[in-house]
Design a protein that fits this description.
Blueprint: H1 2-11, H2 20-33, H3 38-55, H4 80-88, H5 93-105, H6 109-112, E1 120-121, E2 126-129, E3 138-141, H7 144-157, H8 175-188, H9 199-210, H10 215-222, H11 227-234, H12 238-243, H13 247-251
Antiparallel strand pairs: 1-2, 2-3
Length: 261
């Protein structure tokens, strides 16, 4: 209803008098002046089309209006040093362990909050993720440093069931609490990039790829059904970009003779 209300305010006349040009102008207004995303504008167009054609039965409106194309944006990626900087700002041992495990094992926030003591295999250095997305179990890696952090935390907090219990030990910590933990750490570290707790999973995949890990193994660790999903996660890594030489390097030997220096 909010989208319809905004359209009515923009229109400054009765909705029944809407024309194709009115809708087109509103779309341009949302994109150019309000800076709304293409997904938001497409949702608005669908709502307006239903209202104007199905409810108000106006003919010839919302016809031949091009739909804004889906935006393809690369997510912000933090370097390993930036991730470490975020982790180092967290002094609370429980909160720091949550973030360490999320990043080091490539876990979804919904997975890390539901871990139980029995899911941690110290000897094989694995985390057993149970019934996650798609109702599938999987194993992912457990680093030596993460093991040390876990053991110190579990010993300090006397954990017996949920690895990360909530205020009431019967329940696990909430996803929103973990999100806030990350956001506070990110802000304290003065990281200005648009990253969230879920980004740690993305950085896990990207950093593995930069380190030379085969994409098929990363797919297994993340629990992706399709390699296409993993490819979207990893996109163009810093390692790949660094292997590409700028054409300026090819011509730099002639820079002096061309009068550039």
């Amino acid at each position: 209803m909010g989208q319809i209300s905004r359209y009515q305010i923009f229109l400054k006349k009765d909705l029944a008098g809407s024309t194709n040009e009115d809708v087109r102008n509103f779309v341009h207004y949302l994109l150019r002046e309000k800076g709304k995303s293409h997904a938001y504008v497409n949702q608005t167009l669908s709502a307006l089309k239903f209202l104007l054609t199905k409810v108000l039965c106006i003919k010839g409106v919302c016809e031949q209006l091009p739909r804004p194309k889906k935006e393809h944006k690369l997510p912000d990626v933090l370097s390993q040093q930036e991730v470490l900087h975020i982790l180092n700002t967290v002094k609370n041992i429980k909160h720091r362990t949550i973030l360490i495990l999320t990043y080091s094992a490539g876990l979804r926030v919904s997975e890390v909050v539901k871990l139980k003591i029995g899911d941690i295999d110290y000897h094989r250095m694995l985390v057993h993720v149970r019934q996650s997305k798609g109702k599938k179990d999987r194993y992912t890696v457990l680093s030596e440093r993460a093991i040390r952090a876990l053991q110190k935390y579990i010993s300090s907090y006397h954990i017996v069931d949920w690895v990360f219990p909530g205020e009431n030990p019967i329940n696990h910590i909430t996803e929103r609490t973990v999100q806030r933990i990350f956001e506070n750490a990110r802000d304290k570290a003065e990281i200005r990039k648009e990253v969230s707790i879920h980004s740690l999973r993305h950085f896990f995949a990207t950093h593995l790829l930069e380190g030379g890990t085969d994409l098929r193994y990363i797919q297994e660790l993340l629990g992706h059904m399709s390699s296409k999903t993993t490819e979207l996660y990893t996109h163009v890594t810093e390692k790949d970009i660094r292997r590409i030489k700028s054409p300026f390097d090819w011509i730099s030997s002639n820079w002096g003779s061309a009068g550039g220096e």
